[in-house]
Amino acid sequence: MKSGFRAVVFIVVALAAAAAGWIFLRPAPVFVDTAPATRGVFVRGVLSEGKTRVRDRYAVSSPIAGLLRRVALKVGDPVEASATVAIVAPGAAPLDDRRARRQLEERLGVAEAARSRAAAGAARAHARLEQARADLARTTTLVEKGVATPTRKEQEELAVKVADREAQVAEFEVHLAEHEEAVARAAVQTDGLREDAARIIEIKSPIDGVVLKVVQESEGPVAVGAPILEIGDPRRLEVIADLLTTDAVQIRVGAVAKIERWGGPADLDARVARIEPAGFTKISALGVDEQRVLVVLDIVSPREQWLPLGDAFRVEARIEAARAPDALMVPVGALFRGRSGWNVFVAEGGRARLRDVELAQRSETAGLVVKGLAEGERVVLFPPPILRDGAAIASSGGDRRE
Questions:
Q1: What pairs with residue 275 in β-bridges?
Q2: Which tens digits make up the pLDDT trace of 233-261?
């Protein structure tokens, strides 16, 4: 009887010791944060520093060699088209010299040719605008009938906007050419100024705008074609951003963009208007030569939102390079490189399971998964170096639900 009781006690003590040993010797679980793989709209953007630029700048120059009167205008002063912005009086050199006279006549011929070319360009731009409007009308009809897609209609609407901008620029070019022709014609008509030294030339503003730069403010001699000041319309701003050529090739004209950190309370909407075809070399902050290209953005937000912006203001542009409307995504904090490519740890039954995944795109915050994960599976965020396949894990209280 006693021996049986002792055997039972021995077995109980042995089991308790084994259980205590297992509890104390088993590996402690690794505390981790997890997040689910979710479906949604994936967007990858390219961020770059940029600056604003007045779309159309006009350099006002002297049509003759003479004496410039002091310029009263200051930077920021508004001017109206055809208003006098500078006055040039004839200098000591005789303007009826044969060679000088011949040069003035040739400059007039160049100005007349430039006006004709600008007029032809304006006619071509207006023709393109009419064609774009006609294409939009046909596409609108096809969309209503269900033959064409709404995306095609949006492309046609963008084409109309671009053609309208080009027509406006062409009209400005015609106006500028007419102004330059008038200045050149006035210079030719100054023959005999030596006999009439009181006669002066008034230089007019080609557009309604503001003074962006005064090149020569004080009174003094000027040469033929010497710049005096620059005039532009600050309401017609664009943003110039320089991107790595490897990023620029993934961007298309019309892509959506955001103007960030410009000083205002909210980001501004923009679109890619042009990607310049020629790149240039720029030295980075680390001293590395980089091939970059300029990308021109049109601000599409209402003018009232970016009224304080002026010429050559610093901004940051985030340009959309890729978009997937129905994508399976995981946070980039869960991704890490393995021997076979990208890997994640999946939380399954309190264990971390190593999983190979295939990515199509990767943004600053998320990775687009095309293979290796299912929607709703939870992945370990920022896995610690000690985490191994099959290791026990526990929540640290920082799990993400979305």
A1: 295
A2: 888 899 999 999 999 999 999 999 999 99
